[in-house]
Amino acid sequence: MKKYILILTFLFSVNTIWASFVYLPMSHDNQKNHLKAYGIVYYALQNGLKAKWLLNYDGGAFLIENNDAVVNECKVRGVSYEVISDAKSQLILEEIASPSKNQEAVTLEKAPKIAVYSPKNKMPWDDAVTMVLTYAEIPFDVVYDEEVLNDELLLYEWLHLHHEDFTGQYGRFYGAFRTAPWYIRQKKEAEALATKLGYSKVSEEKRDVAKKIRDYVVGGGFMFAMCSATDSFDIALAADGVDICETMFDGDPSEPNYQSRIDFNRTMAFKDFELIRNPTTYEFSSIDMTRKRRINKETDYFVLKDFSAKWDQVPTMLCQNHTQVVKAFMGQTTSFDRSTIKPTVLVLGENTNNKEARYIHGTKGKGMFTFYGGHDPEDYQHRVGDPKTELDLHPTSPGYRLILNNVLFPAAKKKKQKT
């Protein structure tokens, strides 16, 4: 009996020594809170621990250096995990390394410092990125025009653009909401800020903000934008030096034939688009597919594309999910007309039947950008004044996972891409 107890004690101690990794599964069946799992990885990196992202393995699982604090956080946050031995982790890594597997283990080195570009007193309707960062318990700072123009973006590795209108047309809400108190207040606040920063027009101030953000990306920053921040950002860059705003927006008429002066060489992602001239139309340009869509809500999905995990690690990281088919959702800018996307830009997710891209990625200088169409992945047609989405009801949301892929991929040790 005594000998049996000694053997059990020895086996237990050996198992404890080998238990050197916290494994976070990310498949549909094995993870009960995909969104908070990203927060666990961020927490580990923030505290100096090592981690690996297992691309295309178990839904894009994570290996984290074993630590009691990480295990405790998994328990507190409701994240599925397993403490595994070093031997088991090596078997997993060997399986992933096989040339026959479209899988890769990417080392995550440092938690990126995150900034969210958003008005300090934003309106009650929500921003999906701000919500999911908060839900996943990933820390971020809020910055806006003053900080951007003062070059404070240099303090951050990752920047999200709130649903902003960089053209100075106040979100194109004029047609439906010009008499609404919130619209009148928002316009006055934007004009006051532009004046404070030394500009006579909001459109000119927003143009310079867009150019500063572009320079941030060119210098090596990572930028993520959703909804109207995607196309209005590129429009502002393309219309640099051209007045495209009507009198109700900036006090004087737009330039005649301004379309002919749009310079597509200045944009990040889009080309050959036509601007919408009517100021009462809730649309910026032909980039967006919202008014061209003929898809029923019940059949509205987009498909994530496959990339080589061993050679094209960045797009593979951005597409990690527990499903390849993702429920679609609308926004002011819902999706992107394929004919307006530059050939140098990767389409990560698309609806081929409707010839629209939902999720695109590209490089600019030393940095990278990702544009994601739509407003809220778990609110199909979010409207002004609608209540916010409660992410406690959607902890495994594939649409929100794509946002968090973008948050985490700047932490990865870089490898030259094949694509």
List keywords for this structure.
single chain; 419 residues; alpha+beta; Rossmann fold; 5-stranded antiparallel beta sheet; globular; disordered N terminus
Structural write-up:
This protein is an alpha+beta fold and 419 residues long. It folds into 2 domains: 2-108, Alpha-Beta Plaits, CATH 3.30.70; 114-411, 3-Layer(aba) Sandwich (Rossmann fold), CATH 3.40.50. The protein is 32% helix and 17% strand. It has 13 helices and 15 strands. The chain has helices at 2-18, 34-46, 68-77, 86-97, 128-136, 145-149, 174-177, 181-196, 202-218, 228-238, 247-250, 313-318, 398-408, and strands spanning 19-24, 51-55, 61-65, 82-85, 104-108, 114-117, 141-143, 158-161, 222-226, 301-304, 325-327, 336-337, 346-351, 356-364, 367-372. Helix 2 runs parallel beside helix 13 (398-408). The longest helix is centred in the first third of the chain and has 17 residues, at 2-18. The radius of gyration is 23 Å and the shape is globular. Residues 2-18 have low confidence and may be disordered.
